[in-house]
């Protein structure tokens, strides 16, 4: 499934970098699972000990349902798209249509179609089903990381006053993602993986020697 900001194309590099940190850790926590490109590859490395979350209620519903055997439709017409958009109740189907059947995987950008007649819904469906296999046994939550992941205690509640509101256009219109806070929280004891703070975008993608990134605390 296409997902705006998804990591599908660079997933193998990210997973390789994260895998270095597995020894000595028995739990995986991903607070921003999005299109699940990383989550579905990392969760199987932590059987029964992966917690994945996203604060988008549609997305959380999608991955929960897919994990439990829900299958997306094979066809989504333009009329289906409009109807799903109008029905604001969060659901797996709504997420599938909103992301998987929109141009660029951008939620409700516009109905994806082209002159070649590409099968956008079919491709999205195959992507969801493939990722669902990697989510077996994982805990999936709808939660905002700043609230400590729904009271699970897995992430300490980040102080909202410390949240760095991203500059307009950097992280989307909602402007709620405080990356520095997330890295700080994940770097503390108690999270499954330690994270490195990239010096600039891409530093972390080439293995330990590629960037002189520091480990966060
Ligand atoms: C760029 S996407 C993650 C992409 C994912 N790694 C992938 O490969 O598809 C970022 C996600 O963070 C979620 N998000 C943004 N702010 C959040 C918050 N405060 N708490 C939890 N999730 C949040 C968004 O809904 C979005 O799905």
Describe this protein's structure.
This protein has 217 residues and is mainly alpha-helical. The chain has one domain (8-215). Helices cover 32% and strands 7% of the residues. It has eight helices and five strands, in the order αβαβααααβααββ. It has helices spanning 11-19, 39-42, 57-67, 78-86, 92-100, 120-134, 148-151, 179-187; strands spanning 28-30, 50-54, 139-142, 196-197, 214-215. The strands form two sheets. The protein has a three-stranded parallel β-sheet, with helices on one face. Strands 4-5 form a two-stranded antiparallel ribbon. Strand 1, helix 2 (39-42) and strand 2 form a beta-alpha-beta unit. Helix 4 (78-86) crosses helix 5 (92-100). The longest helix has 15 residues, at 120-134. The two termini are 35 Å apart. S-adenosylmethionine (SAM) is lined by residues 3, 5-7, 31-32, 34-35, 37-38, 54-56, 59, 144-146, 176-177.
What does this entry show, briefly?
Helix content is 32%, strand content 7%. With 217 residues, it is mainly alpha-helical.
Features:
single chain, 217 residues, mainly alpha, 3-stranded parallel β-sheet, two-stranded antiparallel ribbon, 8 helices, 32% helix, globular, disordered C terminus, binds S-adenosylmethionine
């Amino acid at each position: 499934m296409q997902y705006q900001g998804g990591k599908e194309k660079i997933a193998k590099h990210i997973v390789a970098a994260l895998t270095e940190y597995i020894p000595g850790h028995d739990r995986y926590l991903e607070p921003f699972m999005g299109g699940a490109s990383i989550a579905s590859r990392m969760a199987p490395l932590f059987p029964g000990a992966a917690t994945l979350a996203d604060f988008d209620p549609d997305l959380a519903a999608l991955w929960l349902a897919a994990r439990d055997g829900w299958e997306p439709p094979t066809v989504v017409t333009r009329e289906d798209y409009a109807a799903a958009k109008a029905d604001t109740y969060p659901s797996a189907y709504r997420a599938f249509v909103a992301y998987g059947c929109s141009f660029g995987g951008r939620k409700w950008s516009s109905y994806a179609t082209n002159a070649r007649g590409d099968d956008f819904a079919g491709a999205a469906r195959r992507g969801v089903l493939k990722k669902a296999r990697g989510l077996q046994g994982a805990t999936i939550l709808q939660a905002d990381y700043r609230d400590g992941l729904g009271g699970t205690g897995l992430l300490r509640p980040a102080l909202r006053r410390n949240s760095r509101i991203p500059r307009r256009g950097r992280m989307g219109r909602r402007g709620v993602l405080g990356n520095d806070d997330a890295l700080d929280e994940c770097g503390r004891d108690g999270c499954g993986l330690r994270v490195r703070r990239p010096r600039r975008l891409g530093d972390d993608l080439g293995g330990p020697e590629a960037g002189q990134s520091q480990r966060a605390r």
